[in-house]
Amino acid sequence: xxxxxxxxxxxxxxxxxxxxxxxxxxxxxxxxxxxxxxxxxxxxxxxxxxxxxxxxxxxxxxxxxxxxxxxxxxxxxxxxxxxxxxxxxxxxxxxxxxxxxxxxxxxxxxxxxxxxxxxxxxxxxxxxxxxxxxxxxxxxxxxxxxxxxxxxxxxxxxxxxxxxxxxxxxxxxxxxxxxxxxxxxxxxxxxxxxxxxxxxxxxxxxxxxxxxxxxxxxxxxxxxxxxxxxxxxxxxxxxxxxxxxxxxxxxxxxxxxxxxxxxxxxxxxxxxxxxxxxxxxxxxxxxxxxxxxxxxxxxxxxxxxxxxxxxxxxxxxxxxxxxxxxxxxxxxxxxxxxxxxxxxxxxxxxxxxxxxxxxxxxxxxxxxxxxxxxxxxxxxxxxxxxxxxxxxxxxxxxxxxxxxxxxxxxxxxxxxxxxxxxxxxxxxxxxxxxxxxxxxxxxxxxxxxxxxxxxxxxxxxxxxxxxxxxxxxxxxxxxxxxxxxxxxxxxxxxxxxxxxxxxxxxxxxxxxxxxxxxxxxxxxxxxxxxxxxxxxxxxxxxxxxxxxxxxxxxxxxxxxxxxxxxxxxx
Length: 570
Fold this sequence. Notes:
Elements: E1 7-9, E2 15-17, H1 23-50, H2 57-97, E3 98-99, H3 103-109, H4 118-129, H5 134-143, H6 159-184, H7 187-195, H8 200-211, H9 213-229, H10 232-237, H11 242-251, H12 256-280, E4 299-300, H13 303-333, H14 342-375, H15 379-388, H16 396-422, H17 435-458, H18 463-470, H19 475-486, H20 488-504, H21 507-512, H22 520-529, H23 537-565
Parallel strand pairs: 3-4
Antiparallel strand pairs: 1-2
């Protein structure tokens, strides 16, 4: 069989004939390798740094810091995982299978808490629930209490407060994936279960929930990854997680090697959790055998049941978005004079420039990686794609430690050459210019853009590639003349998601930003650190307003996708 008759499997999974790979095509393989190497570089640098001697620091960390921070992290993850599971799965089932007042509104409104970073929610709830906040003030006025000794009120600055706040901010990850799984479940399976006498509760626990398990696990895993990455909320609540310990060891103890060792332990925890999850479901398979998408059977609720369902869906939206947003609007309205503050303007410019540059770079690299798999469909390019996706599982503090060393080494190398040969200093070219931050954002959020771009390419039939080949087009021209114009909406979505994620990122920004360089996120963090959150209300509100865009986009895209599928026929 000749090369031109070979059958290769492209990213769509469909075997189509294509011609032998040309030297130009192999460039995409090299590009995929380069992307994978850039993603792995911080991990390798972290391992090398962790191998450096730390004197008696490591003994102190192992004896005191690591056990406490590890136990606190596990408790935090257990609590957040429980809340996100209960709230995410419960609300997804209600809006999918039940009819009650406000269901259409909650269908998309339950995603809105994704617009608010966890650290902003943490700051607002301390303002709301603290002794001087509106809740405790109202309690004292109603019951005539004079001091906090006269009554009991839960302490918001605690592990329980962190679990509460993060759980009601991160549940949309579970809601989104679980709702999609419920919508795609076979209507025939549910109908058969009903004919066999399964009531709503039994149908949920015995049929729908087991079938949705993979989607639920994905959603909970994403929520836990965000929980591990957080540093702003846990610092403000006084909860010493592993992420906080890495930051504290680096900044306050001035031990970068010790921070790297803690970061390696934290990374090992992340990969262990991922392995345990995959190992637990290694023999389980879930398939939808029907090719028809029908409207799912639903339960119409009335009376107290309808009111309870409405309240159950309204509570997460109110806790995760409405109450914090109302406080931000109130505080920001009192500080409108800050709109002309040069410091705020500089923070906005810095945030936009970094986020736009990182989003463009991230999407461009996602295109390169995805197209490499399309042009050179083999195990190597698939492996490169998997490696490039691990960045999202790496917490920002860990990533910052791994990035600092190679970039600082490069900066010092260039500076040494300039001093010895030209008599002047170049300074910190990469770290001092913000390039390190762009690199960190790219590694951290490449999985987000890559997933969007890969889905877009998967909808383009491989036969278009073959038709373009017969017309003499190279792989590069096919990309720019055929694929990119066809997936433009997907690229815009990927850009928006990457931009907002970069704009909200706090841990890596705190550790890698140049001196006297502030973004909106660090401005909010600094204000909260001074116990002057009102000073950071306006930049916080700006972050939330921009963050609303992808939340609304996700809701509209998801609703439109399943509305279209419901009308499909085999």
